[in-house]
């Protein structure tokens, strides 16, 4: 991919060295994320990083996605696992959504689809923000040349997370416990970037105490990749998401 900084290219070179396969880039205007990295499996010759075309530099988003794969590759093969849903999350979320509410017929009809979307979002955030904090800390400490782009990227992510607070259908809204990971990330971003404003909306939403609890778990557990599963599991327990997912041995 053209125009990536030497620092970013060096991170990608680490992936190639550890995995024995290069990273290919494919633009994808349909992506909701800035970038996503598909691992090379079943004999595929390369990892594929799909990215949303944009005028701004993509180095932070590329480096951030690469961080997930680097952490996986740091582990011995027997300790590598995929994160997969068990199928129980939508029903659990629907219970949380509707508990104690007197719903209209329209709201009752909308509840299953709203719950499914909220469950998908919650499952993605559980893993991505818990481990993502480790990646952001690593980028801040080990790759200072990307610091300004990291600040801009983290700010953009905070603005996207704020939109979740207004997602609702009538009286249906994302249950407060499921906002814990984004509240934790807001506290983390405030701390890492020396700000104080990112966490404020999550206090008003009632999610900041849980966010602080989740951030304290990050601080207490060792930061190496060996503890990533324990970090996600401990977060899940604190949020009430235990049993919503399982760990499946990784197959290259």
From TrEMBL:
This is Uncharacterized protein. It comes from Aquariibacter albus.
């Amino acid at each position: 991919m053209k125009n990536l900084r030497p620092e970013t290219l060096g991170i990608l070179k680490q992936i190639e060295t550890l995995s024995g396969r290069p990273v290919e880039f494919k633009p994808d205007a349909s992506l909701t994320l800035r970038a996503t990295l598909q691992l090379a499996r079943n004999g595929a010759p390369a990892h594929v990083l799909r990215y949303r075309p944009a005028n701004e530099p993509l180095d932070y988003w590329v480096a951030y996605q690469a961080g997930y794969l680097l952490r996986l590759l740091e582990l011995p093969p027997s300790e590598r696992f995929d994160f997969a849903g068990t199928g129980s999350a939508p029903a659990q979320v629907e219970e949380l959504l509707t508990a104690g509410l007197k719903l209209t017929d329209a709201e009752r009809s909308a509840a299953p689809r709203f719950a499914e979307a909220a469950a998908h979002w919650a499952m993605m955030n559980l893993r991505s923000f818990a481990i993502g904090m480790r990646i952001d800390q690593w980028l801040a400490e080990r790759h200072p040349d990307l610091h300004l782009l990291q600040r801009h990227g983290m700010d953009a992510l905070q603005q996207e997370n704020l939109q979740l607070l207004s997602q609702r259908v009538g009286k249906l809204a994302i249950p407060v416990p499921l906002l814990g990971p984004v509240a934790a990330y807001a506290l983390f971003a405030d701390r890492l970037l020396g700000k104080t404003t990112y966490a404020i909306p999550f206090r008003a939403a009632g999610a900041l105490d849980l966010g602080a609890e989740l951030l304290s778990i990050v601080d207490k557990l060792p930061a190496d990749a060996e503890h990533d599963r324990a970090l996600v599991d401990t977060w899940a327990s604190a949020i009430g998401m235990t049993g919503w997912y399982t760990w499946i041995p990784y197959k290259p």
